[in-house]
Amino acid sequence: MQANFKAALEHVRISEGGWTDNPKDPGGATMKGVTLNTFRRHFGQDKTKDDLSNITNAQLEQIYRTGYWDKCHCGELPDGLDYAVFDAAVNSGPGRSAKWLQAAVGAKQDGGIGPKTLAKLKKYKPMDVINKICDLRLAFLQSLSTWSTFGKGWGRRVKSVRKTALVMAGGNPSNPSKPAPPASFKTLKKGSKGPWVRKLQAALGIHVDGKFGPDTKAALIAWQQDNGLEPDGIAGRNTYRALGLIA
User: Fold this and answer.
1) Which residues contact 150 (CB under 8 A, 6 or more apart)?
2) In what order do the strands lie in the sheet with 30-31?
3) Residue pLDDT, tens place only, 97-156
4) SS3 166
5) DSSP reduced 3-state for 211
6) The domain 2-168 is classified under which CATH number: 2.60.120.260, 3.30.70.1230, 2.30.110.10, 1.20.141.10?
């Protein structure tokens, strides 16, 4: 429901962290999960890192609402389910989150929540759909080659989301646990080199050489387009999360 947006956002923000910036990674500045590129896209190309570091609550809400909440039609979903879909969108991309919801209700998995998906949803109890989405999300994460490295944090986050979402849906009102803190990462773009480029290339299923060249950029842009992310050819927090490389 629309009234749940701010409450859902507060839960999501727990795992987003504060200010991060690596001077070796142009475009890598991030505040509360919002990258400089995303910030500029919403509020103007003249915005600086200082502007981003002082992002207001109103600006933050606008980005999360338009980029994730509205994209997944969370305002039209039942209590609890709206948060489960929203957190999955932030963590793994709006397209993948939408497909998990569609799979849970037997709708066509095209990554776009519309009237047909919402109509099928009415046949199911929200708590059953929440559990199914969390099961699908966890299964996806467990299937990744990086599960052995990041699985503990991922598992805690999904467990926390499940618990909180079920409480919001009217389930057992026990205190939900906080998700794991965000993992460190290196923002990448054309010209980058090193181990994080290798991780990215392996996750994209392309040749692994540790060099971010034209082929890697093209593969990344295509993958971002297919998964509902901004196709900017830059690998940052949202892309890594959607690929399952960080929690």
Assistant:
1) 183, 244, 245, 246, 247
2) 19-20, 30-31, 34-35
3) 999 999 999 999 999 999 999 999 999 999 999 999 999 999 998 998 878 877 877 888
4) helix
5) strand
6) 1.20.141.10
Domain-wise residue ranges, the chain:
2-168, 195-243
Among 66, 58, 57, which residue's Cα sits nearest to residue 38? 66
pLDDT of residue 125: 94
User: Residue 247: which pLDDT band, with cuts at 50, 70 and 90?
Assistant: low
Q: What tokens were used for 73?
A: 């039609």
Return the number of other C-beta atoms located less than 10 Å from residue 243's C-beta. Answer: 23
Token pair listed for 100: 């998990």
Distance CA 133, CA 135 (A): 5
Radius of gyration of the chain (CA): 18
Cβ atoms of 8 and 81 within 8 Å: the answer is no
Distances (CA, A) of 36 to 43, 81, 96, 100, 192: 10, 30, 24, 29, 18
Computed from CA positions of residues 150, 156, 159, 161, in that sequence, does the dihedral angle turn out positive or negative? negative
**Residue pLDDT, tens place only, 46-99:** 999 999 999 998 999 999 999 899 999 999 999 999 999 999 988 888 899 999
